[in-house]
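User: Hi! Is it possible to get a structure for several chains at once, not just one? Here's what I have:
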Amino acid sequence: SYELTQPPSVSVSPGQTARITCSGDALPKKFAYWYQQKSGQAPVMVIYEDSKRPSGIPERFSGSSSGTMATLTISGAQVEDEADYYCLSADSTGNQGVFGGGTKVTVL
Amino acid sequence: QVQLVQSGAEVKKPGASVRVSCKASGYTFTNFDVNWVRQAPGQGLEWMGWMDPNSGIPGYAHKFQGRFTITINTSISTAYMDLSSLTSEDTAVYFCARGVAGTTELDVWGKGTTVTVSS
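Assistant: Yes, the chains can be modeled jointly so their relative placement is included. Here is the combined structure:
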């Protein structure tokens, strides 16, 4: 079955840049979506269609995709950005959604 | 405002079935897909399936085919997920989420429903 691979954890100092990668064979043809989940809460979409930012999401969140890898970048990370981040995409058929394993971002 | 309100927590015995509901408000229900996602304790998000309310055609993750069913009642803007033959591994928080048609863009989420499977 199709898989998306993310690093388990990323640590960054406040004000620095955090980059979270998501790799998958179908990403050249399928959009990646990024979700932030804080403890005990429902996920929130922070990036859609590889690089678009929903209204209300701070500008420090950006996304990109090249080849088989999508990247979520948090420029100038804040303490409140500490959360788990998940990429989501579809397999090559477009019929199956798949989440990456998630990346825990620590800002300290 | 746009929201998805899910039914309350459930406790089930192994082998039983569970139904979770998800009532939408604040938007035209048939203009968006309904997705179901679950999260076991301390684990990541797992996509389970979706349904287009217009066609009523579902799509299920391979892992859940055969014991997972999504149904929709468009007259009351409510989606349901049924999961049968429960085991302890089905203990999780189950989320419904609004999906932009035909994509994995899940822009609005319910708060989640905890399902506990225990003897």
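The longest strand of chain A covers residues 83-90. Chain A touches chain B at residues 1, 31, 33, 35, 37, 42-45, 48-49, 54, 84, 86, 88-90, 94-102 (CB under 8 Å).

User: Great, thank you!
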